[in-house]
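In response to reviewer comment 3 from the previous cycle, which asked for concrete evidence that the modeling workflow produces usable outputs, we include below a single protein chain processed end to end. The sequence was submitted unchanged, and the resulting structure tokens are shown without manual editing.
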Amino acid sequence: MHFLLPFKRATDYLQFTKRTTLHKAYETYENLFDSLENVKAQFKLMTCKPDWISQVEMAIHAIWNKLQKYYTKAGTPSAFADAIILHPSYKMKWFKKRDWKDNEIEKYKQKSRKRFETEYDSPAVPIIPSKRQFLDSSDEDEDFNEFDQFIGSKRHPDVKSPLQWWANSRSTFPRLANMARDVYAVPATGCGVEREFSISGNVVNIRRNRLHGKTIADIMQYKRWVANTRQSVVIEEDPQMFEEGEVWSDPEDDIEYNQELVDWLDEWEKKKGIADRAKEILQACRL
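The workflow returned the following structure tokens.
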């Protein structure tokens, strides 16, 4: 339970569908690697290992290898890097703080810039007139586009919601805002899609196996609408089934609404890291 808790926390966070988590993908990978490395370091300090510790150690090595396999593959999709670069509080600083090589950082930056120029920096995209806030005499340089303007501007460390920031900054970066909208629409995991399949499985059961496809879609959309808008649902045929004011919601989504709980768990995990928990287990084994 101690060793798997960071993975449980990562899964709970990255499966969110109502807030942006794509920019946290690389960071989550690195945090999980750090957790595993801390555990492996504690194993090396053990002079005698009970059988069950040896089995856990083998499992930790297997987890590390599996994580490394998928982390290597995560370098190919562009959305992960673009989500970090386009985050107003991250930008290129995120890579530098984690000691990424300069040539790798520049490669991600240039690829992201090229995607912007190819797919979004087009005269067909309408531009809302606004005061250019960050440009100087190089403003007239045609090679200095919105992407360069954004990268060259100062970071905003307090920004928590990149989508909200881009919505407010659309007048300044109209074309780059379109790119940010598309990037942050990508979910960090496929959990949201899998959840929809689970919901449809509850809708279509052995007693309702002849529902039309459109009927199934309408039921699922209505359920989501009720949960998202927090509207009261009262069953006219049998009002006793639901108390007045009760809403339908997906229990799996409740954690997304409880931001206080999410913040508390983050703080708890920082104070009680996996290395500390591993030390406690080591001390217990010595006793």
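The radius of gyration is 24 Å. We consider this sufficient to address the reviewer's concern, and the full set will be provided in the supplementary archive.
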